Amino acid sequence: MTRRTFAATLAAGACLRAQTSQEKGRKIIDQTIDALGGDGFRYMQTRVERGRAYSFYLEQISGLEIATIYTKYTTTGEVQRQAFGKKQDDWILLTDTLAYEISYRGARPLGDDRLKQFHESTLHDVFYILRMRLNEPGMAFEARGIDVVENQPVHVVDIYDSENRNVTVWINSDTFLPVRQRFLRWDPIVNLRREEVARFTKYRQAGNGVVWPHETQRDRDGEKTFVLYSERVSVGDELKDGMFEMPAGVKILNKK
User: Fold this and answer.
1) Do 8 and 124 form a contact (C-beta atoms < 8 A)?
2) Mean pLDDT, to the nearest integer, of 182-202?
3) Is 63's pLDDT higher than 80?
4) What mean pLDDT, rounded, does the chain reach?
5) What is the structure's pLDDT at 254?
6) How many domains does the chain have?
7) Distance of alpha carbon 184 from alpha carbon 196, whole angstroms
8) What is the pLDDT of residue 95?
9) Within 13 Å, how many C-alpha atoms sit on residue 49's CB side?
10) Rg (Cα) of the chain, in Å, rounded?
């Protein structure tokens, strides 16, 4: 065997291994979609999560709210209305172009940084990727082996897109439900790269055959920042477009 032939053989073997890794990664992802509800998950249009939301600072509770999070999938992405309190008269609107905090006083813009953070978090969210971005050009899923995370046996899958975004997902090897995800994002405010981690537990039926986590914890750089304990999650509720629009005639307040 010549040196050139030997090099070509090594290259072909590396290519085959890469293909095998991607094929296995895609198979795990397909099994995850089935575990989340199959077509019920893939064609989910709306979701409502009701429960208690805790915010943390330096591992200490800094806020507690009764929260109702309304999510609607559109042709271009995802929009959210995050309502707080029993009366839900204080709420946050997040869309492709808007990020506002709205109350009886008026609508206060949250700024471009909050809007960009919402977009980046959405694009890196494993559930959004599987619902909206699965067949996007340049999307790749690579199996990285098996591990034990949160005391559970898991498959480790790396997800890449055409913009070099990367999300690592740990998927329970028995149930094929996501256990944890991790990605890095650049924070221009502190000029540092942030490690964003989310943990998902207590999966339950949410309607239309969809299974959804009822507890979600988010960490940043190793510190807990947010926990949502959902008492009820429902899929398929009719949510009118007006819920995700600025109220007519609302007063615009100074930027927060």
Assistant:
1) no
2) 89
3) no
4) 90
5) 85
6) 1
7) 6
8) 95
9) 21
10) 20
The domain containing residue 173 runs over which residues?
A: 13-244
Q: Lowest mean pLDDT: which of 54-68, 90-104, 112-126, 192-206?
A: 54-68
Instruction: For residue 52, tell me if it sits in a domain.
Output: yes
- Give the CATH number, domain containing residue 163: 2.50.20.10
More confident residue, 191 or 137: 137
Would 250 be classed as within a structural domain?
no
Tokens (6 digits) for 35: 């575990």
Q: 120: which 2 tokens?
A: 């980046």
Phi then psi dihedrals of residue 76, to 5 deg: -110, -10
pLDDT at 132: 97
Lowest mean pLDDT: which of 4-13, 158-167, 213-222? 4-13
Type of residue found at 2: T
Give domain status of residue 27, yes or no: yes
What's the pLDDT score for residue 187? Answer: 78
Position 75: which residue type?
A: T
Q: 188 and 21 in contact (C-beta within 8 Å)?
A: no
